[in-house]
Amino acid sequence: MQTLLILGATGRTGRSLLERRLGQGGRVRAIVRRREGLPESTRNHPRLELVEASVLELSDRELTRYVQDCDGVVSCLGHTLDCRGLFGAPRRLCADATSRVCRAIEENRPARPVRFVLMNSVGVQNPDLEEKRSPFDRGILAFLRRALPPHKDNELAAGRLHRDIGRQSPYIEWCVVRPDTLTDEGLSACRLTASPTTSLLRGRPTARANVARFMIDLVDDDRLWDTWKFRMPVIMDAIDSDA
Description:
By secondary structure, this protein is α/β, with parallel strands linked by helices. Helix content is about 40%, strand content about 20%. It has one domain (about 5-240): NAD(P)-binding Rossmann-like Domain (Rossmann fold, 3-Layer(aba) Sandwich). It contains 9 helices and 10 strands. β2, α2 (about 40-45) and β3 (about 50) form a beta-alpha-beta unit. The mean pLDDT is about 90.
């Protein structure tokens, strides 16, 4: 099991992913702005290498070094849901971090493609599919695109992988994971679909623990990766009617 680079490890989904990976016996390198954002038992784990820095403030040389021996990158970066997080700088956190990490990977010219998993949003469209949205949902998305910088940032981040990296890079393969309505519930059965199945205002609950498990499985499981690479799966908790 190779080293996994995690961005956004101090967020609620990122912490779940980090703890799960360490519990599996894996080695993790995490770039975090504040190490105090992790429990003491986690930040002192012998298989965890913490880099205390903003991914946007690291030099190109430093970032290239930090991705050099990682066979997978998972980004759980996001904006905090307060006034500063929604409207303050950096407004392009997810998109710019995605671009910088991808350039660092390409600079290293790895022998096999690095798997880049981006946690995104169910409100982001997959350009490869004619995803059906109701007029009401289209109106909501148009409003979010103009009024809330985090939504535009999520769109740009997904676009950096879909458009700029595409399917031809010899150094990067990618998957954009679109959770529905995130909750802090425990692990459960989950459902994966190629496109959203509900209105934005009737979202399906999605446990962060389920999202974390799926993203780690993507990095580790070749069959699962071959199913979802270069795609944008929607993940949600399973309900009885899914059976």
